Amino acid sequence: MIITTSENIVGKKIVRTIGLAKGNTIRTRHLGQGLVAFVRSLVGGEVTNYTKLLAEAREQAIDRMVEDARALGGNAVVMCRFSTAEIMQGAAEIIAFGTAVVVEEE
Questions:
Q1: What is the pLDDT of residues 16-62, one digit of tens each?
Q2: Rounded to an integer, what distance in angstroms lies between the CA atom of residue 14 and that of residue 7?
Q3: What CA–CA distance (Å, rounded) separates 23 from 21?
Q4: Which of 24, 45, 51, 88 is such that its CA lies 20 to 30 A from the CA of 14?
C-alpha cells in the first residue's frame, strides 16, 4: 500500500478515487509513565516513554487506515494527515486519515 502526504504519486496515475480512509487509536499512560514524565519535567529533556507511546499509536493508526483503504478497494492513500486530541486527562486519540484511491502504472 502506497501512502503519501501529497496528492499525486510519481510514476502512478489515479484511476479511481474511493473516498475517506481512516484509522484511529486511543492510548492512555500508566502511573509509572506519569511519574517519569513529572520527574523529567523538573530537570528537562525528552520524555522518551511518551515519545515511544505516541510513535506506537501513530503506527497503529496508520495500520488501521491501511486496513480501511483496502476494505474500500483501494491500493493507495493520498493526502494522508494525522490529528490528535485529548479525550480525557491522560488519554489521547491519534487518527490517521487520507483519500483511498486506486492507482496504476503510468
A1: 999 999 999 998 765 455 555 555 555 666 667 778 888 999 999 99
A2: 10
A3: 7
A4: 24
**At residue 46, what are phi and psi to the nearest 5 degrees?**
-75, 140
Question: Sign of the C-alpha dihedral, residues 52, 54, 55, 61?
Answer: positive
CATH no., domain 2-28+54-105: 3.30.110.70
| Residue 84 grid coordinates | 490528535
50-104 confidence digits (pLDDT tens): 788 889 999 999 999 999 999 999 999 999 999 999 887 778 899 999 999 999 9
Name residue 90's amino acid.
G
Distance CA 26, CA 66 (A): 17
Q: Structural domain boundaries of the chain? A: 2-28+54-105
Q: What is the dihedral of CA 87, 49, 2, 79, to 10 degrees?
A: 40
